[in-house]
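STRUCTURE:
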């Protein structure tokens, strides 16, 4: 009996269990629903084209503003409420502490005033009040000379007649000569006074005033450098500076990011292996990440012919770390709704059929 069970029953049971398992796998297992991707992957917009990764930027490129003077930020003239608002060229953005420079400026301005006053005094010499006393001295000396000359001439006649002694004659002669020299001295001093300042003295005073003026201008420039202004018209994209922060010219971050958002542009990175097939005349379209159904028409602007190392990687297994890219600039010729500066886009560039390629030549002028 046991032999009959082993011969017929056990194999039959095994076959039945195997059939049941096949049935269970084919019909009883739960069917999972088909799941569509949350975000549609990028796709090529043209029948024949190349793909590139692009980054949205402002029309005049994103301008990272820093400071030329190191110090503590004393005042930020713009607030976060002004992000995206348009400002004009020369608008104050923030100011570095310049109180010590303003104190030095007041000292230099005082030195300048002193130098200019000294120059003005030399230029206005002689004073009108000094001329009458000088002329009076000349007249007094002339009158005294005339009197002593008369005495000297009379004594000269009397000494010949031996009426006066030789000693009295000699005394009157030297007294006259002294009076004559005093008169000549008074005349010379009067002429010197009326001649005004000496030209070399004026030159020295003018140079001192100019040096003081230059020192004031230099300090005013240093104070102006402490105030960072908008270099161009545009919109404020980012503010990353606060009052009380210490900033310097070597800061790696952009304190304020400025750009022109009237017309946005896309900087496309074309892989080096696609450069020979790139054509500036080909149409270009961009698709937003997460909105692949929305296309943006691009207009060619220029090519930056220097091939640079690639910085943004997609994670593809075939992508090398040492990949280099050619940067091509396009302008978005579509409505900019939903497009922001710094946003990544997938760019499709149309090329001609491989049978008649027209490779890009950086030396050829762009029409």
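SEQUENCE:
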């Amino acid at each position: 009996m046991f032999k009959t069970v082993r011969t017929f029953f056990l194999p039959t049971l095994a076959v039945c269990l195997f059939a049941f398992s096949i049935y269970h796998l084919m019909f009883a297992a739960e069917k999972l629903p088909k799941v569509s991707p949350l975000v549609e992957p990028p796709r090529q917009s043209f029948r024949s084209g190349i793909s590139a990764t692009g980054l949205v930027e402002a029309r005049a490129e994103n301008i990272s503003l820093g400071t030329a003077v190191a110090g503590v930020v004393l005042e930020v003239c713009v607030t976060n409420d002004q992000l995206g608002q348009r400002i004009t060229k020369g608008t104050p953005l923030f100011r570095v502490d310049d109180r010590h420079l303003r104190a030095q400026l007041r000292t230099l301005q005082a030195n300048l005033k002193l130098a200019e006053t000294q120059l003005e005094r030399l230029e206005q010499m002689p004073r009108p009040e000094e001329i009458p006393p000088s002329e009076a001295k000349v007249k007094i000396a002339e009158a005294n000379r005339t009197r002593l000359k008369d005495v000297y001439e009379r004594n000269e006649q009397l000494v010949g007649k031996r009426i006066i002694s030789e000693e009295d004659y000699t005394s009157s002669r030297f007294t006259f000569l002294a009076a004559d020299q005093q008169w000549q001295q008074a005349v010379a001093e009067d002429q010197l006074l009326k001649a005004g300042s000496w030209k070399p003295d004026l030159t020295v005073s003018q140079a001192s005033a100019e040096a003081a003026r230059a020192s004031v201008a230099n300090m005013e420039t240093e104070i102006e450098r402490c105030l960072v202004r908008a270099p161009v018209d545009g919109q404020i994209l980012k503010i990353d500076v606060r009052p009380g922060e210490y900033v310097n010219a070597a800061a790696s971050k952009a304190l304020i990011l400025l750009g022109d958002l009237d017309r946005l542009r896309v900087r496309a990175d074309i892989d080096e292996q696609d450069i020979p097939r790139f054509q500036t005349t080909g149409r270009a379209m961009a698709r937003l990440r997460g909105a692949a159904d929305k296309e943006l028409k691009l207009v060619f602007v220029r090519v930056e012919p220097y091939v640079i190392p690639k910085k943004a990687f997609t994670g593809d297994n075939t992508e090398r770390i040492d990949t280099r890219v050619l940067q091509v600039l396009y302008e978005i010729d579509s409505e900019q709704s939903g497009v922001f500066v710094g946003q990544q886009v997938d760019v499709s560039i149309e090329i001609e059929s491989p049978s008649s390629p027209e490779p890009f030549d950086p030396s050829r002028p762009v029409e």
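REMARK: The CA atoms of residues 93 and 180 lie 77 Å apart.
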